[in-house]
Amino acid sequence: MRIVLVGPPGAGKGTQAAFLAKNLSIPHISTGDLFRANISQGTELGKQAKSYMDAGNLVPDEVTVGMAQDRMEQSDAEHGFLLDGFPRNVAQAEALDAMLDREGMKLDAVLDLEVPEDEVVKRIAGRRICRNDSAHVFHVAYKQPKAAGVCDACGGELYQREDDSEETVRKRLEVYHTQTEPIIDYYKAQGLVATISALGQVDEVTGRAMRALHGRGDQAA
Q: Which of 161, 171, 188, 211 is an active site residue?
């Protein structure tokens, strides 16, 4: 299956993408991984992206689309893929459609992870990270440390990242509503969107997503 995963920051896209890709035996292709891989490998597209990023500018759509195309042309994506973070706007969605059309392919589904805005703010603004090891993550509501402000694993100080402040989260949501959310209507016009609640335990959300994809997979077959 060829799937696009959409949802606001804090919806759990990365977590769900990893589970779904494993269950469906298709590669998980994330924008973040694409950028890191191309920059670290020094590809031409990576160099272009880095030059824009170093200057504090947004990477143009054509560079992002080029990276995505290169990745989707790799052998492990021959029978499908799950896109996470791409397309990010309608222009990228149109470019993806054109790219797939040239190869005689099409998307099978667009999964829209739905989360109330207040829950997004609660999820992200409540995160606390260990200063000694950023892999140690706690939450003021969902995963409290044994001692307030202290990492259970190493005793390091827990802090809130600047990007996780409520003000920053709400700004990120504004960007999502303005730039990315319109692709949902774009894909709804093609009959591709399945909207599922991203509330609850991870396995519950994965189950909803798999059930939503099941019928579409039968149709695609």
A: 161
| Element holding 113 (H helix, E strand) | strand 109-114
216 noted as active-site residue: no
pLDDT in tens, 34-53: 999 999 999 999 999 999 99
Q: Catalytic: 102?
A: no
**Separation between Cα atoms, residue 90 and residue 86, nearest integer Å:** 10
Query: Annotated catalytic, 161?
Result: yes
Q: What is the largest CA-CA distance in the chain?
A: 57
Contact 128, 158 (CB under 8 A): yes
List the catalytic residue out of 71, 122, 127, 208. Answer: 127
Is residue 36 flagged as an active site residue?
no
Catalytic residue among 71, 172, 208, 216: 172
- Judge whether 19 and 84 are in contact, CB under 8 Å: no
pLDDT, average across residues 78-91? 94
How is residue 25 annotated by DSSP?
T
For residue 132, give every residue at least 6 positions away whose Cβ sits within 8 Å of its Cβ, in sequence order, or none.
151, 154, 156, 157
**Short-list 57, 38, 55, 54, CA closest to 46:** 38
